[in-house]
Amino acid sequence: MEVSQFGDLANWIIPGKMVKGMGGAMDLAASGARIVITMEHCVFDVDQTKGLTLVELAQEVTVEQIKASTECPFHIAPDLKFY
To answer: Which structural domain, as residue segments, surrounds residue 25?
Structure first.
């Protein structure tokens, strides 16, 4: 699963299939429901105009590590929380 800085979804692997192709991201997005993508290392809020804001970070992960593994720019919440 890939999420853009503005919350756009993309996935290109169907779990359990040998052939890569469209997965279920388009169906999820078309439903109009709130979608939550979970990660172990951090939490981002997504604003469709302002982009990503880092709001929570795992204790063992640094902001620099998140920057290195995130291709798009993002903001850091002034009240960044740790879990």
So the answer is: 2-82
The domain total for the chain is: 1
**For residue 59, with 0-12 CB atoms within 10 Å meaning exposed, 13-18 middle and 19 or more buried, which class applies?**
exposed
pLDDT digits (tens, 9 = 90+) for 13-50: 666 766 565 566 667 667 766 766 667 889 998 888 88
C-beta separation of 42 from 58 below 8 A: yes
If 0-12 CB within 10 Å is exposed, 13-18 middle and 19+ buried, where does residue 57 land? Answer: buried
**Residue whose entry in the numeric block shows the structure tokens 């002034």:** 78
pLDDT surpasses 90 at 1: no
For residues 31 and 42, is the Cβ–Cβ distance under 8 A? no
- Give the CATH number for residue 46: 3.40.1080.10
Give the position of tokens 């109009």: 32
